[in-house]
Every structure is written in C-alpha cells, then in structure tokens.
Amino acid sequence: MGIRVSPEGTAPSRATTWKDWLANADLCREIATADGTDLSAGGRVVDLGVAVLEVKRLRPVHLRREADRVRTHDQDVVQLVVPMRGTVDVTWEGRHDSVTVGDLYVHDLAQLDEVNLQSDGRESLELAVVAIPKPVLPLRGEAMESVLGHGVPGDHGVSGLLKGFIEDLADEKLSLNAADGQRLGAVLVDLVAACFSSLSESGPGPRPGSQRQTLALRIRTYIQCHLADPELSPRSVAAAHHISVSYLHRLFQEEGDTVSAWIRDQRLRRTRRDLADAALIDVPIHEIAARWGFGRAGDFSRAFRRTYGESPREFRSRTARRTPRP
C-alpha cells in the first residue's frame, strides 16, 4: 500500500491511515478455505486507535493461503492471536505450532501458510486477534523477527500480563469511548513491545527474577491505565499493589526512573500525541491536559516546554493541521 506510519503520528490523516491499513489485516481475509466454507460465526471489533482488536467466532475449518493473494503490506502488520475457546494449528514459513486457551501466537501474514481451526466440541471457536502496524512498535530487526511464528505460553511473566490484558479488552461487557480506546491502545502497544523484547532476549520460558519484573510491569500498566486520574501518585500506586512506597521507589530506581517522573513523562507523551492529532484540533489545550491528569494548565505548559523545548500551542500549530474538506 506504500503507507508510512509514525508512532508519534503527526500526519493529519493518521487515524484514518491506521484504520485503512489495519482493515487489510484480517486473519481470514487473505486466506481461502479449501472448500469455500463460510467460516464466520459472528464477532465484534474494538477500535484501540493504534491497534484493532477483533473478537472472532469461527466455525472449525482448515484454511490455506492462496499464493496469488500475497500482498506486500502483509509483512507490515503484526498479529497476536489469543484463543478464547478452541485450538489453532498454524504453519508459518514452514514451521508448525499449536496454541490453545492459555496461550498466544504472534505472526505476520506474509509467511502464513495454513491455519487449522479446531473447536472444543462446540459449534464454533472464539479468538481474540490484535493487529498492530509494525512501525508503531519500537522494535526492529531481530527483536521483531525472532518472535514471529511462535506460540507463547501465557501463564507467566510479561506474556501472561499481555494475554490477560487482551482478554480483558475482549470482554463483551467492556464499553469504551473513543478516548478510552486510544488510551488502552497505547498501553497495549507498550505491553506488546515489552513482551517481544523479553521473548527476544530469553525465549518464552520464565526468567530469574521474573516475579519482580512482572510486578514492575504490572505497576507501569496500572499507571498508564490511570493517567487521567489527577490523584495518581506514588502513594496511591503503592496502595493499589499492597506494597510500601519505599519498595515502589526501589523498583523504579532499579530501572533508572523515579515514580513521579515516569508518571509525568507518560502524561506528557499522551498529551503530545493528542495535540498532534488533527481530529482533536478543536479541543482546547487545557482540556487535553486535564484528560491526562494535569490539574493545572500552567504546570502542564511549563512541563511541556521544559521537556520538548516549545509551548503546547507552538507544538500544536507546527504539527496538527485541519484536514481540508472536499
């Protein structure tokens, strides 16, 4: 498709571009059934801004790729498949793997050869499928390629957190507005990046100290989900995880951070992204700041200028452009 995507995304058509790109990343759209069976049994889509989550109910079927349906953009989208019910047997670049409830599978469509969807005795199986454009992920080369085409146990460490987060997002009782979807999409991308980095370093098995690392990542995920709360603080974070404030500070110091600075940095990153979004150009700057937990507009402006070298207004004027009407 020849579309270039930036994680910070300053182009006016950023949201539309991502959606158009991800619309081509459907698990079954690029694969033909051997007998022409209609494999859909229902499902729904959750728009997460930088990612799309599809909950798919599918009839048991054997799928194979048609060689002439391979497209260049297939290699530019990562998919994470989490079986909610049933089993998925996959052949990717000649390598076979099988995943079932409790696991997740990571691939792109470029090298996907065959998929065999098996139910657990019911009429249909259910999958949660996340699609993310590769340029959105802060990973390249080996860190990305070494993970693709592998099933990953989802019962420990970072992969367990990621699987649980995807399952929570897939819950049909979950109702999200557009802003919440974007916030959770950003959290999801961070979790995926952390999971891929962990797997590329040491494979899917548990590592020494993984319990402590899992707690640290769970805390960071909690913070990202609560950035909009102006009362978010080291004390409230520690209380939510039943640890002392001093232990919380030690967890962050081990990674060269402080809790307060990391919270402020995450809030600034989210406001900067929203200020660059042409779709939000009519939303006042102080409202965007408040959405991400900045209680005082003056404090936000000073922190923004200190971090990025220009005021929020100057940044928005330079990056966000209203999309021309036809």
From TrEMBL:
GO terms for molecular function: DNA-binding transcription factor activity; sequence-specific DNA binding. Coiled coil: none annotated. Residues 217-318 form the HTH araC/xylS-type domain. It comes from the Bacteria. Keywords: DNA-binding, Transcription, Transcription regulation. InterPro entries: AraC_XylS_family_regulators, Homeodomain-like_sf, HTH_AraC, HTH_AraC-typ_CS, Tscrpt_reg_AraC-type_HTH. This is AraC-like DNA-binding protein. The lineage of its organism: Bacteria, Bacillati, Actinomycetota, Actinomycetes, Streptosporangiales.
